[in-house]
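Input structure tokens:
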């Protein structure tokens, strides 16, 4: 089982370069960072975690810029979006960003995607929350065309372009792996368009039946990464018994010294299971 880290990189915490180097030094396999372009001041959508929305959501850096900075100071660390909000992103620009990051990192990108929860945020991007799932699926299909075809075109309900040239192409072929975030509602997307499921902070007891459900729907052994996994021994053993591919320990956003101390503790935990 592989061990990585998920965290909000903001203007108030450790820098992406210091974080990336520290993770590779401590033998972590991957770094996943989330995305929020902004948070509307008059938001009505409740925070899925309950209570007040943490300040890190307001201050998180652009994921592709932050991961590019981490790529420059690392050689092996996998660089993941956890998650990129595809319904809020232009597919042509996003395809170029993913491919560019894959090129400059030497093929180390994992494209974690989701449809989002903040309805006011997506409306500011011109996205109708009621159709964001169909929109995300179509944009993913269009991006795959851009990544894999020398002359790509796409004609759909939401995305429409005649033949275009779009470079660079990703280093990874046919394209970086797509990790689909979300609950059971995302399972058809995982089955059709995803290479893995990015499960969010789910206990082993809850995860087991859902993995069986997903793999039955997909008709294949879908790899599973658990986002914000607990670092308790009984949980880690439970995830391992389910065949989970990767655990992402959540690292709170703190100044560099505090972050490094936290990483030291997590690295010691992970070392016991490698």
């Amino acid at each position: 089982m592989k061990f990585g880290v998920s965290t909000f990189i903001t203007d108030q915490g450790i820098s992406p370069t210091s974080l990336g180097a520290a993770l590779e030094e401590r033998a972590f396999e991957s770094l996943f960072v989330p995305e929020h372009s902004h948070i509307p001041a008059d938001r009505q959508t409740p925070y899925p975690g309950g209570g007040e929305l943490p300040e890190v959501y307001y201050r998180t850096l652009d994921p592709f810029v932050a991961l590019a900075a981490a790529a420059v100071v690392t050689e092996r660390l996998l660089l993941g979006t956890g998650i990129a909000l595809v319904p809020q992103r232009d597919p042509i620009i996003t395809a170029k960003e993913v491919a560019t990051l894959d090129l400059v990192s030497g093929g180390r990108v994992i494209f974690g995607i989701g449809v989002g929860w903040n309805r006011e945020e997506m409306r500011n991007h011109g996205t109708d929350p009621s159709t964001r799932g169909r929109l995300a699926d179509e944009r993913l299909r269009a991006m795959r065309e851009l990544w894999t075809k020398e002359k790509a075109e796409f004609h759909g309900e939401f995305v429409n372009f005649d033949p275009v040239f779009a470079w660079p192409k990703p280093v990874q072929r046919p394209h970086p792996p797509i990790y689909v975030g979300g609950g059971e509602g995302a399972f058809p997307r995982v089955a059709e368009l995803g290479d893995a499921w990015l499960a969010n902070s789910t206990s082993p007891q809850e995860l087991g039946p859902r993995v069986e459900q997903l793999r039955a729907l997909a008709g294949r052994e879908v790899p599973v990464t658990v986002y914000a996994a607990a670092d308790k021994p009984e949980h880690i053993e439970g995830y391992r018994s389910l065949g989970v591919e990767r655990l992402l320990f959540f690292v709170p956003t703190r100044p560099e010294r505090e972050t490094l101390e936290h990483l030291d503790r997590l690295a010691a935990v992970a070392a016991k299971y490698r």
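The chain has a mean pLDDT of 97. The CA atoms of residues 71 and 104 lie 7 Å apart.
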